[in-house]
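User: Can you recover a sequence for this backbone? Please restate the input before giving your answer.

Assistant: Of course. Working from this structure:
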């Protein structure tokens, strides 16, 4: 990728991480990568005030994200999955400080994003970009899309007019489009074309991290596959890391090295993508995956659908203990009073669930391993 002086930017070795080894886009068998993380969230929480009355006084708070700790390494894709309203998009915005945290810290390459001033934050944002869900709302409808794609170049790089034009042409070619697309207005392009241009804008300034907030949910199935293929190719070529936010576990599993499952603002399970998908350990993860449609009719008919009872609790008044206990088919007495600790399961998976600690001893009748882990 071209730098401000027209020379090539960071190489694959530069982006390999502090251990000096290039990333291959796949996670090690134990679900962890060597070296310090690119992005690290420690005890991150976000509470939005609820204001009521004529004077708009604060009457409570929506607990959108609660005590989340995650790490993402260079060249890795961490999938973040959960129902609508689980806090996924808010967490992605907290990672880039689009919104400020209420508690906790966010670090990018060891630098504290939460404490960065305006100048430092501008530099950090060159290294971390975002792609939003709706491509049509991501572009100014009154301007040609080329003006929006060029914005990171104008803000972060000191390019001549010729270098700027060359870089724009390089970017549209990178995402499989032609230079003439830059002269069109958003209404003249399809959703898939606009999302490709949004991705081009995100990688324009050579970031190390891109947060993908439901990047394909508004697209048709065939276009989804094309965009996912584009993202995977860009990751191989550029070494960029992704925080991939989606509500479809099957899509996340295909695109991710690791998966983190989120419920009502908390991470309930995280581990290697295939391990979480094929051996879900948390009851909520099991319920999510049971809703995934399998293309084989015989397999689909033989699967057991787990239907969760009740509604998602009000995030302004989350239940005590395990937040999932009000809908969990295996809930124990302890689940209603104590938050479950993090349990380190095999194969690099971490799960927060009492069933994996004292569950069989506390239940009225013992739970078999088959019941806990399908």
């Amino acid at each position: 990728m071209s730098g401000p002086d027209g020379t090539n930017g960071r190489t694959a070795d530069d982006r390999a991480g502090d251990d000096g080894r290039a990333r291959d886009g796949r996670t090690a068998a134990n679900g962890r990568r060597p070296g310090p993380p690119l992005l690290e969230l420690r005890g991150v929480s976000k509470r939005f005030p609820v204001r009521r009355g004529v004077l708009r006084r604060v009457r409570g708070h929506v607990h959108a994200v609660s005590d989340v700790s995650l790490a993402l390494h260079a060249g890795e894709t961490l999938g973040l999955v959960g129902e609508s309203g689980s806090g996924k998009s808010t967490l992605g915005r907290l990672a880039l400080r689009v919104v400020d945290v209420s508690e906790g810290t966010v670090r990018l390459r060891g630098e504290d994003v939460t404490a960065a001033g305006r100048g430092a934050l501008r530099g950090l944002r060159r290294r971390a970009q975002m792609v939003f869900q709706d491509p049509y709302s991501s572009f100014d409808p009154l301007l040609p899309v080329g003006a929006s794609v060029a914005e990171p170049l104008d803000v972060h790089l000191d390019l001549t007019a010729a270098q700027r034009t060359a870089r724009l042409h390089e970017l549209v070619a990178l995402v499989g489009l032609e230079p003439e697309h830059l002269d069109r207005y958003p209404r003249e392009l399809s959703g898939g074309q606009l999302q490709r241009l949004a991705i081009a804008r995100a990688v324009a300034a050579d970031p190390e991290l891109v947060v993908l907030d439901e990047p394909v949910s508004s697209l048709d199935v065939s276009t989804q596959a094309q965009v996912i293929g584009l993202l995977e190719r860009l990751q191989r070529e550029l070494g960029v890391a992704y925080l991939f936010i989606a509500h479809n576990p099957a899509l996340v599993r295909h695109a991710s090295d690791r998966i983190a499952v989120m419920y009502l603002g908390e991470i309930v399970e995280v581990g290697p993508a295939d391990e979480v998908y094929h051996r879900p350990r948390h009851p909520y993860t099991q319920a999510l995956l049971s809703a995934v449609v399998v293309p084989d009719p015989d397999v689909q008919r033989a699967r057991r659908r787990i239907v969760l009872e009740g509604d998602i609790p009000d995030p302004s008044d989350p239940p005590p203990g395990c937040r999932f206990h009000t809908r969990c088919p295996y809930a124990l007495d302890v689940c209603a009073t104590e938050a479950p600790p993090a349990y380190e399961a095999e194969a690099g998976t971490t799960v927060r669930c009492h069933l994996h600690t004292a569950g069989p001893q506390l239940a009225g009748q013992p739970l078999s391993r088959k019941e806990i882990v399908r």
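That completes the design. Residues 1-32, 360-374 have pLDDT under 50 and may be disordered.
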